[in-house]
Design a protein that fits this description.
Radius of gyration: 26 Å
InterPro entries: YceD
Strand content: 35-45%
Structural class: alpha+beta
Distance between the termini: 77 Å
Number of domains: 2
Number of strands: 9
Largest sheet: 7 strands, mixed
Shape: elongated
């Protein structure tokens, strides 16, 4: 039997009493890779949850913060680096027979299923909006040398290549012949 998803929270104890609330502060393992192509929260990485779950007339309102370590690849120099993502979460999960559930599209609000709030998709969406599309290991990363591919941050200070414009290459060959 697969392990239970730690981002699925049972809210049966809240009942349907508007104003009833509970807090949840814990660290859980990430059930899946959450993020973008070049930067993400890896599977099993600790996710710190600091949440308030409150019963409201239309469902359960979840508010709080989610923090996790990320692993990424610099879009300039291709080195792996670690980072952190911190998101604010505010999400309504509608009761199955509420007006909100009946009047909204399936993906507009979350839905309670068997008194379970599934935070995974909400966290995936929020993390995807927070992470950079082209992550860098540091803001001043110089990237790679376009001629040889060496990381410029680790190259000698006078690293350079004599590049001849292809339009003048034939003339350079004549000059080399003349020098011989």
């Amino acid at each position: 039997m697969p392990a239970a998803n730690p981002l699925r929270i049972d809210v049966a104890r809240l009942g349907r009493r508007p104003g009833a609330l509970t807090t949840r502060t814990e660290t859980v393992p990430s059930p899946s890779r959450i993020g973008l192509d070049h930067i993400a929260i890896p599977v099993g990485a600790p996710i710190r949850l600091d949440l308030t779950l409150q019963s409201v007339s239309e469902g359960v309102l979840v508010t709080g913060t989610v923090e996790a370590q990320t692993v990424g690849e610099c879009s300039r120099c291709l080195t792996e680096f670690d980072g952190e993502v911190d998101i604010e979460l505010t999400e309504l999960f509608a009761y199955p027979d509420s007006t909100t559930e009946a009047t909204t599209e399936a993906d507009e609000v979350g839905h309670l299923v068997d008194d379970i709030v599934d935070l995974e998709q909400s966290i995936v969406d929020a993390v995807g909006l927070k992470l950079p599309f082209a992550p860098v290991c540091r803001p001043d990363c110089p990237g790679l040398c376009p001629q040889c591919g060496v990381a410029l941050a680790e190259a000698e200070p006078d690293h350079q290549h004599d590049v001849i414009d292809p339009r003048w290459a034939k003339l350079a060959e004549f000059r080399a012949e003349a020098d011989e």
